[in-house]
């Protein structure tokens, strides 16, 4: 029950930042892959399927529910933003878990859309137009 409540709350939370890079990545992903659902969390310690520390991981539940993206809260924000884009490329290409051509294309598209949105919102220099 606690997990369900946390998941519901996460969908309602809004960023207090007008320039939240995580929100920009999520928007870029949503623009490109509007039918792909996922849940994302920043957590203190991320481990991969072998129990090793990781910066991020995407889990595809066996019950067919939306994938769960976890990004380490222990890494710098700029790295976390790239890790989120990396993991969302996995969500976009569940058939390509080995960082192949489909994954790379999705990652590049997310990055390009992120930059497009950022420039539209904040201009070339990163300040609001």
Q: Mind sketching the topology for me?
A:
Blueprint: H1 2-12, H2 21-32, E1 39-43, E2 46-47, E3 53-54, E4 56-59, E5 68-72, H3 77-92, H4 101-122
Q: What would you say this structure looks like, in words?
A:
By secondary structure, the protein is α+β, with helices and mostly antiparallel strands. A hairpin with a 5-residue loop joins β2 and β3. α2 packs parallel to α3 and α2 crosses α4. 21% of the residues are buried.
The major sheet is characterized as:
3 strands, mixed
Integer-rounded radius of gyration:
15 Å
Q: What overall geometry do the principal axes of the alpha carbons give?
A: globular
Query: What's the CATH H-level superfamily name?
Result: Metalloproteases ("zincins"), catalytic domain
CATH class: Alpha Beta
Helix-strand sequence = HHEEEEEHH
CATH architect. name: 2-Layer Sandwich
- Strand order across the largest sheet: 1-5-4
Task: Determine the mean pLDDT.
Answer: 90
**Count of runs of 4 or more consecutive helical residues:** 4
CATH names the topology as: Zincin-like
User: What's the β-strand tally?
Assistant: 5
Pick out its properties:
14% strand, 129 residues, alpha+beta, Zincin-like, 3-stranded mixed β-sheet, 4 helices, 5 strands
Structure summarized in a few sentences:
The protein is an alpha+beta fold and 129 residues long. The protein is 47% helix and 14% strand.
